[in-house]
Amino acid sequence: MKSLTFASALFLAGLASPGADWLTDGGDPQRNNWQKDEKLLSVATAKDIKLLWKIQFDNETRAMHNLLPPLVIGSVNTPSGPKQLVIQGGVSDNIYAIDVATGKLFWHVKFETTFKEPAGGRGPQVLCPGGMTANMTIGPAGAPGKYTIYAASWDGRLHQLNAADGKHITEPNKFMPPNGKPYAMNLWKNVVYTHSAQGCGGNPNVAYAYDLATNKVGSWGPAGGGMWGRSGPAISARHDTMYTGTGDGRWAPEDGVYGNGMIGVRQNKDTKALDLVDYYGPSNAEWLVKRDLDMQVTPTIFDYKGKEYMVDASKECRLYFMDTESIGGDDHRTPLQRTPLICNETVDFAEAGIWGSLSSWEDSKGTRWVLTPFWGPKHSKYKTPIENGVVKKGAIAAFKVADGKDGKPKLVPAWISRDMDQAEPPVVANGLVIAYGSGENTAQAYPDVGLDFRAERRIPKSTHAVLFALDAQTGKELWNSGKQIEKFNHWSGLAVANGRIYINTFDGYVYCFGIQQ
């Protein structure tokens, strides 16, 4: 009897202990997309993944945008006791908190905007939907179980909410111009970072830093293309530097123009301004801009053998491996490595290439890995030791970081996954790669009309998202969600924590898959 009581106590203690978090796009400020604290999901348990619940919200769709990537707080002290919450943002200035245990709405906030759409305006467009486009970020609030949610509303104000009940901690403050298109925010050393793109609302494309201690905002612009890495900027832990790719634009650093490259900006501790500290331009940047092959992917930053490195990518469909001490070398055009093309043999600006963000993780043997999603068929000349079938619409490509003959680290191809319909950024958790194909129709040009970005054309041609669980060592498929997810998603992502996988769709549903506990 005593042994049963002791076992029960251990079980209950495990339930009461704080769970793993997913507090920002990509899981951490370095945008690794690696859930380091997963215990339930594994290669052995992947076969047992099931749909646990789904919930639909009334967030108004704007063009193809609806729900932002979900975030997870493992244990929040709420008026109803400790709870694990999913924090879900919606493009129409909504934030929802879901009680993970029940799959029910726990609280909801809709921001009162100070921005009014101009009469006779264009309305929501795919590239400029309006609304809350930057995903939130969450930080601890000084005591265990307390968290602050940072959100940027459509009118450009920064909101700070108590995660326990959704109430404002302080009055919203001006952060950015209204009606722009900022991307997922990042929180580092009491500063909130983001960047904008597409010139939405007539606003310039700018990197922003909001200093929470002083409420001062610093900004810096590349004077070229927009910065539209979907997961927002990545932060170097060693240099306190924000890195992002820059979209289509002229590469002319001598004129202060940094289109189609990479830039690193750092907050000035005295003035709180943002200063340019490093930059890199691909050797073929001039050609890339002519073919609309932006450097638009959120980079991933990690340590390897005592040094810090960064990997980024573009629609051209190759990876750039960089040392954060000097990302482009002395001439700002020479990274450590520029991989061969993985895909996009047809030089397609819309339905092929690398989009979104990357992933990086370290296995139990100390091997560092880098993963990238890609759209379209694999390049006919790209070879990897393990392939898991013919790739037509997209896949995940995995690389190992290893030292070359010259002693310098490089990316070595390891495997390519099965085919996925528009493969999106994966999350790594306990030896599993959780990936998905969005099912979105991403075409932007048609033989009959030429360029056509309209949602009305793309939505009917989209299908539905499919989740996959892969063996992280080989890319072998262990499980998929089949037809359980009914719609596609656009510009969203995954969250993984405590044996559960969260994904949302265009029609406002949040799905929770996982291991039944």
Write the layout of secondary structure elements.
Elements: H1 2-16, E1 34-35, E2 50-56, E3 71-78, E4 81-90, E5 94-99, E6 104-110, E7 137-140, E8 147-152, E9 157-162, E10 173-174, E11 186-188, E12 191-195, E13 207-211, E14 216-220, E15 234-236, E16 241-245, E17 251-252, E18 257-258, E19 262-267, E20 274-280, H2 285-290, E21 300-304, E22 307-313, E23 319-323, E24 337-338, E25 359-362, E26 368-375, E27 386-387, E28 394-403, E29 409-416, E30 427-429, E31 432-437, E32 445-446, E33 450-451, H3 455-458, E34 466-471, E35 477-480, E36 495-497, E37 500-504, E38 509-514
Parallel strand pairs: 1-30, 27-29
Antiparallel strand pairs: 2-38, 3-4, 4-5, 5-6, 7-8, 8-9, 9-10, 11-12, 12-13, 13-14, 15-16, 16-19, 17-18, 19-20, 21-22, 22-23, 23-24, 25-26, 26-28, 28-29, 30-31, 31-34, 32-33, 34-35, 36-37, 37-38
Give an overview of the whole structure.
The chain has one domain: Quinoprotein alcohol dehydrogenase-like superfamily (Methanol Dehydrogenase, Chain A), CATH 2.140.10. By secondary structure, it is mainly beta. It is globular, with a radius of gyration of 22 Å. It has 3 helices and 38 strands.
- The average pLDDT is 95
The CATH class name reads: Mainly Beta
Reported CATH architecture: 8 Propeller
Tell me the overall shape: globular
Q: Structural class of the secondary structure composition?
A: mainly beta
